[in-house]
Each structure stands twice: as structure tokens, then as C-alpha cells.
Amino acid sequence: MDKLKYALIGAGGNAEKKHIHGYKELHDIEVVAICDVDIDKASAMAARHNVPNVYSDYKEMIQAERPDIVSVVTPNFLHAEITEYALSHGVNVHCEKPLSLHAEEARHIVEARNRSGKQVMIGLNNRFTNEAIYLKKWIDDGNLGHIYSAKAGWVRRSGIPGRGTWFTDKARAGGGVLIDLGAHYIDLALYFMGMPKVSYAAGRIYQNFMQTGTRNRHGYTGIENGIFDVEDAAHGYIALENGASLALDFSWAANIEEERFYVELMGTKGGATLINGTLNLFGEHNGICLDMKPKLKINPFLQLTGEFRHFVDCIKDEKQNLIAPAEHGLYFAEVVDAFYESAETGLPVVLNAGSTEKSIGNEANAFNAGGNV
Ligand SMILES: NC(=O)c1ccc[n+]([C@@H]2O[C@H](COP(=O)([O-])OP(=O)(O)OC[C@H]3O[C@@H](n4cnc5c(N)ncnc54)[C@H](O)[C@@H]3O)[C@@H](O)[C@H]2O)c1
Looking at the 3D structure of the chain, how many domains does it have? Predict the structure, then answer.
């Protein structure tokens, strides 16, 4: 079979660390072009990775190259616009998280995806780690029982991703740490919980470090006098219609000992923690409490390519269950919209019964990491 043509939109940090490497490794993918409004960035990345064509306009690139797949790795506010344009030109889209700034945009993406007959996958790489794949299967096999309580967080001591850049500009990012790091770890907790309908969100957001020049994430530079109108911390609570609760704990900057990213799940039959990448399982047998630690075999190739291989396989075989489809981005956007509204009004925000349109369901995780777990 011919190789599928792949093109990259947005040649910044994440594209370099993740997308270009992942797709380049796949035997059935041909990387045909890179686009960035900053053509020098596109050219430099293309030179580093032997990619033949560069563009500064994504519409021109899509029309000229007719790719089968594009990655959208631009600032958040462009995700919806570019994804819809690509879909309308018959292109499958691997869009970085968050899928959109708001639920309304995500709804339009789902509609555009349905019209196009193509696929949209969100770049939720934390769902593709060996630990997450193993834990999802462990949960789907019933080992935790009903997950009645969970905690999700990503707290950094000095982790502002460029003070004054697009990341701290609400119009371009959609929000601060909640939408940035929450897109990974709120998502992961709700994914493990089976994405139940949300009853209400109650939260507070804070801006304690916006004037502080010392809390940029290592390796990220800021822009002097750039906009900083988003939160650097978000703490709150999500109540779920199945009776479960989810506590949220997020900061780009805080006076804490060290960075921690985690999901803790408490179920009627068992529990699990995934803390800084380490998975532990808890249970009981014959009246004795048990601690379990899966010995996961790490396959470096699959660690690098799992997310990308999965998307290409789902494009080639539509019967496969996509792990991170656009609907999950809509679900997350509804939670985020409600959380920010709660922070603004000071009151819990009840989601309409029809709002989280359906419980996304606890669909079997079709992804198999090729026996590496
Ligand atoms: N999955 C992850 O772990 C992860 C990690 C980091 C970032 N991200 C996401 O990836 C996206 C990009 O983040 P980043 O850190 O790479 O940002 P970045 O600022 O380093 O890169 C964004 C790039 O997009 C380019 N760009 C802007 N407008 C464009 C347009 N109209 N057409 C083409 N290119 C355009 C910019 O010039 C820049 O090179 C964000 O949505 C972010 O949330 C995800």
C-alpha cells in the first residue's frame, strides 16, 4: 500500500519534541511538508528532519500537498479553525490538546468531523504511556469496582511556560494552568473513571506569580511586558452524576517542595495511584491489604510511536476504536468552561443534563501496545 502523506502545522517546541519524531519513525508515512507562520522556523525544522517542502500558510500547504494527515501544533486558539479547514479538505487531523478554547468550538469540530468522514485525534500522550494503558485495562476489567473518589493534579514550583507569551494570554490560550496541564491530568482522571456525566464544577483560580520573573519553566523564555491575564493556579472540585467526586490541584507556580503530576483513584474493590509516572495498585485479599506494582516492559520504539501508530492504524481501519476522539475534547471543554464560570461567579456551576451530551462510556480500550505491557 502507498504511504500516507503527512504534514505538520506549527513548528514550535511540541512539534519538535513529539510530532515530527513520532511520524518520521512510521514505515507507512511520508512526511511531505512543514508549515509555520515563521517560515524560518519551518525551514530549520525541515532541514533537521529532511522534509522536502515548507510553507507559511497552512491553507496553501493543504491545497498544494493534499496530505492524508496533518498535526495541528499551534497556539490553542488556532486549533479549531485549522482542524475544521483540514477536515473540509478531506484531511485527518491529529490536533494538540486542548482541542478548543470552549465547548462551542469543540461542538463545531465534532460536526465538521462527522460531515467529513475523516478522523480527529487529540494529542493526549498521557493516555498512551505503558502505565496508563495498563491501568485503563485493569480498571475496565473491573479491578477497582466503582471509582467513587479521585484526585488529579499537576503542581509545579516554577513552571510558567513563558511568562508573557501566548501561553499566558487568555485570548490565545483559553486560560492558564487549568486548560494547559489540566488538559492532560483532569482528562486522565476522567478517562480512567469512564468519563461519567458531570453534575457540577466548583473552583477557584489564582494569579499570585504573574509579576514574578523567576517562575518560568526551565528552558522557556518570557516576553517582557507581554500579556498575563490567566491563572497560575486552579483548585477545585468536579461532582459526577454517578456519585463520584474528583478533586483538582493545578499550579504553574507555587511555594511547594517539588513538581508532582498525579492521578489517585479510590474504588470499592481497589485503588490506584499514578504519581510522576509510577503506577501502584492497591487491593485486599482474604482480609489482607495488598500493594501491587506492575512490572511493565518498556519498548522504547513503542514509547516514541504509540500515539502516532494508533492514529494511522485507526485511519487505515475505521473499525478500530480511536483512543482520544474529538468527543473527548468536547467533554473536557465543557468541564473547563464550567470551572472557569464557577471561578468567575464564586458559585458551583451545574452542567445541563444534555450538556455533557452523553456519558462517553467505558468503551473497551482497543489499543494494544503490541504486548509491551
Ligand atoms: N501534548 C503535550 O504534552 C504538549 C506539550 C506542549 C505543548 N502542547 C500543545 O502544543 C501546542 C503548541 O505548543 P508549543 O509549546 O509547541 O508552542 P510554541 O509556541 O513553541 O509553537 C507554536 C508554533 O506555532 C506557530 N504558529 C502560530 N500561528 C500559526 C499559524 N497560523 N500557522 C502555522 N503555524 C503557526 C508558531 O510560530 C510556533 O512556531 C499547544 O496547543 C500546546 O498546548 C502539548
Answer: 2
Average pLDDT over residues 212-232: 91
Nearest to 42 by CA among 51, 34, 52: 34
Residues having CB within 6 Å of any atom of ligand 1? 9-15, 35-38, 41, 58, 73-76, 78, 96-97, 123, 125
Residue 162 belongs to what domain range? 129-296+329-350
Structure confidence at residue 1 (pLDDT): 64
Tell me how far the alpha carbon of residue 264 lies from the centroid of ligand 1, in angstroms.
29
| Least confident range of 74-83, 301-310, 364-373 | 364-373
Residue 152: pLDDT above 80?
Answer: yes
Question: Cα–Cα distance between 12 and 167 in angstroms, integer?
Answer: 13
Q: What is the CATH number of the domain that holds 204?
A: 3.30.360.10
CB 366 within 8 A of CB 321: yes
Residues 93 and 160 in one domain: no
> Is pLDDT above 50 for 372?
no
* Residue nearest atom 27 in ligand 1 by C-alpha distance: 74
Instruction: Report the CATH number at residue 103.
Output: 3.40.50.720
pLDDT single digits (tens) 294-315 = 999 887 777 778 999 999 999 9
Pocket test for ligand 1, best of 73, 93, 217, 230 (most atoms within 8 A of CB): 73
133 and 243 housed in the same domain: yes
Give me ligand 1 centre to Cα 13, in Å.
7
